[in-house]
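Morning F.,

Quick status update on the modeling queue. The single chain you submitted on Monday has been processed. Sequence for confirmation:
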Amino acid sequence: MEVFSLILVVSVCWTRTWKAAIADSIIHIGAIFDESAKKDEEVFRMAVADLNQNDEILQTEKITCSVTFVDGNNPFQAVQE
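Structure tokens below.
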């Protein structure tokens, strides 16, 4: 139990120390859609834009995204590229 308490204290202090260093971060996420899912891609991009505009969720971070479309008949296409 003492080890757990020590680890918890160290991790809290470490997190507070690095908080200033990671401010204004850019988070990049990617999505893979079937070629027939154009509407899903649009919804995905709108969700990312909504998150970026909401300062209550992301105060200093911004999300960027990339989208890849794959052939529905070849589920391994994204891995092959």
